[in-house]
Write a structure and sequence with these properties.
Elements (H helix, E strand, L loop, with lengths): L19 H11 L4 H5 L1 E5 L6 H14 L5 E6 L2 H17 L7 E3 L5 H6 L5 E5 H6 L1 H7 L5 E6 L9 H7 L5 E6 L18 E2 L2 H6 L6 E6 L2 E5 L7 E4 H8 L6 H7 L3 E3 L2 E3 H16 L5 E5 L3 H15 L4 E5 L2 E4 L5 E4 L3 H12 L5 E5 L11 E6 L7 H8 L21 E6 L5 H11 L4 H11 L23 E6 L4 E4 H11 L8 H12 L4 E3 L1 H29 L4 E3 L1 H17 L10 H20 L3 H8 L6
Helix pairs in contact: 1-3, 3-4, 12-20, 18-19, 20-21, 20-22, 22-23
Length: 628
């Protein structure tokens, strides 16, 4: 059959910067005498966020140019990865200077025709579809020289139906990639062998490819009743596990069978700590941070959502969970979890930024990617397993809107892990933090503060920054990125001067001209009304963060718990105190300058707590009304 003509000796474009592990793959496949080329197989262990997709694309581009292959079948374990490959791989190949004729679903009415007529050369399938539609895939691979690329190949055991389907494929070369190549059950994999390329988490952090982690452990418990009980009792997650778990039983099912009810009148430190950190991060980079929470049961997930929504005073959290039917002791059945369509809807809303906290039960642990998930909260019972490592991987992808890529370890863009003190995976998380840590004093201090705090850590408020209007009553902004983040012209000039060597000594006007040329647009003026509304929002957020810090300090004196009404009471006290000192003003009649004054007053209180050796004593002496 006629085949697509390939360029000889493909190499990535000179302006395309490869990471060390990616370059190792290219070097091995470029050498016809290397072990992978001779064996027809390459295995790469690459951390989540390191760029496994690029490795798959580059492998195909190089082997296609060498005449070894002319088609590729990509196998993935999840629907999300399937959709991601289909929508992005053609542009990824083009970016590498190796465009493909097309990419399609492997199992479709069109795939075989497109393959035979050279209208497509890359085909994608889930492993589930592969095992169910083996005949269709066999027909597809009957002609052509195929590269089979298996993503997260540790999922495919040698002796199960998935693994057997993969072993029967007619291919001339196999590329297998995974962040965690070992199986939890230690069983044999369908694609066997030691990694030819292996990048450790520490190496990936040092390259700036993934985030370093900071682990914050504190107290967590739940207030619950079981069937026929009327008075709630307080249990740690470990204690609750003993009450719920029968040998291998599903906890969501056990919650139903035992008629478990959660009570959220009192909130615990682990939740308030994570909530406070998310507030602080979004205060500094608005909309760039989200939280992923791992719950151990569906009812538990619903309870956590209620608590976060109460803390925020609005809907900021929703949940997803695998649906199943549970038969109760009386013979009746009850459905737990959500249908797949509902899970996908919630997941889509989370990705679009409709809310910032996603609580999951047996979902969003592998193949789920959102670079804004920088805060992870572990309230489940998963110990040191492949699954736990995959969960942590959800927070390791870099967000370059928070900190640009420099080829070195990130100092600002971090993964914040919050976890209960009795979590079975805590020791692993601490070892991971130590292993990924650098030698910088900042890293060392961060670990000390959050792991073994002598005082309650106080989340800080940044200096006010929507104030430097270049023109009377207006400030200029550039709409930037998919989310149309607004970057001020002043900030754009500073960032350009710091990151573009050729413009390091250029004047502001020269840089502005270059920026406008690059953006192809003029910056947008922001009206006085918009600025006032933006300042008001910052005051609301600042008051909530100060209140959150106050409540957490007070909770540390009360076994780490506090009534959820305390946060709202504290916010109202902050605003009331301001009005008492400024009786002629109200939130609705203040100018921008007066609003900024209120913000700085809130920030001064917060800074006083942050800088004090004992924040509680600071409040008692300087702002006793916060303790009423």
């Amino acid at each position: 059959m006629p085949q697509r003509k390939n360029q000889a000796g493909w190499q990535p474009p000179s302006n395309f910067k490869l990471r060390k592990g990616q370059q190792q793959v290219i070097n091995l496949l470029s050498n016809s005498q290397s072990a992978p080329r001779k064996n027809g197989q390459l295995i790469a262990e690459l951390p989540t966020g390191y760029g496994k997709t690029l490795v798959v694309c580059a492998s195909y581009a190089l082997l296609r140019a060498a005449g070894t292959v002319n088609r590729m079948l990509i196998i993935v374990p999840s629907g999300e990865q399937f959709a991601s490959y289909l929508s992005e791989i053609e542009s990824d190949m083009a970016d590498l200077g190796a465009p493909a004729s097309g990419a399609l679903k492997a199992v479709s009415a069109l795939s075989l025709k497109a393959h035979r007529t050279n209208q497509a050369e890359i085909f994608v399938t889930t492993v589930q579809s592969l095992s169910v539609n083996a005949d269709v895939i066999t027909d597809l691979l009957a002609t052509g020289r195929w590269l089979v690329a298996a993503d997260e190949f540790h999922r495919y055991a040698k002796d199960n139906s998935w693994g057997q389907s993969i072993q029967q494929l007619n291919s001339v070369f196999t590329v297998a990639v995974s962040a965690t190549p070992d199986r939890t059950d230690k069983g044999e994999k369908a694609i066997a062998g030691k990694p030819d390329v292996q990048v450790t988490l520490k190496e990936a952090v040092e390259e700036g490819a993934i985030r370093p982690v900071v682990v914050c452990a504190s107290e967590y418990a739940v207030d619950i009743t079981f069937k026929n009980e009327t008075t709630p009792r307080r249990l740690s997650t470990a204690e609750l596990a003993k009450e719920l778990m029968e040998s291998g039983a599903d906890i969501s099912a056990q919650e139903v069978k035992k008629d478990l009810r959660y009570y959220s009148k009192y909130l615990h430190k682990t939740i308030s700590d994570a909530h406070g950190k998310l507030q602080q991060l979004n205060f500094e980079e608005d909309g760039q941070h989200k939280m992923l929470v791992f719950a151990f049961g569906v009812k538990h997930a619903k309870s956590i959502c209620e608590q976060f929504n109460d803390l925020a005073g609005e809907k900021v959290a929703d949940w997803i969970g695998v649906q199943s039917s549970v038969t109760k002791d009386d013979g009746t059945s009850e459905t737990v979890g959500r249908a797949e369509a509902e899970n996908e809807k919630v997941l889509s809303q989370f990705k679009r930024g409709k809310f910032s906290v996603l609580v999951q039960v047996k979902k969003a642990t592998e193949g789920f990617n959102d670079v804004r998930c920088s805060v992870l909260l572990f309230l489940n019972l998963t110990g040191e397993t492949v699954l736990l490592k995959q969960m942590i991987g959800r927070g390791l992808r870099r967000n370059y809107a928070v900190e640009p890529s420099t080829g070195r370890r990130a100092t600002k863009d971090k993964c914040w892990i919050f976890v209960s003190n009795d979590h079975p995976g805590l020791d692993y998380m601490k070892r991971l933090e130590d292993d990924m840590a650098g030698s910088e004093n900042e890293e060392h201090n961060t670990r000390e503060v959050h792991r073994d705090p002598t005082n309650e850590p106080i989340y800080g408020l940044p200096e006010f920054y929507i104030v430097d209007a270049e023109y009377s009553s207006e400030e200029l902004y550039y709409p930037f990125g998919e989310g149309k983040e607004r970057i001020s012209e002043k900030d754009a000039v500073q960032k350009t001067r710091a990151t573009v060597p050729a413009l390091a000594t250029a004047s502001d006007d020269e840089i502005k001209a270059q920026i406008r040329k690059a953006f192809g647009m003029e910056p947008k003026p922001v009206s006085t009304t918009e600025r006032i509304n933006a300042v008001r929002k910052k005051i609301v957020d600042a008051a909530r963060l100060l209140a959150s810090n106050v409540v957490r300090v007070r909770a540390s004196r009360c076994a780490g718990t506090f009534p959820k009404s305390l946060l709202g009471d504290t916010i109202r006290a902050i605003h009331a105190r301001w009005l008492k000192g400024n009786p002629s003003l109200s939130h609705d009649n203040m100018t921008v300058e007066e609003l900024i004054g209120k913000y700085e007053w809130i920030r001064g209180l917060n800074n006083g707590m942050k800088e004090a050796f004992d924040p509680y004593q600071f409040m008692a002496s300087e702002a006793p009304w916060l303790l009423l």
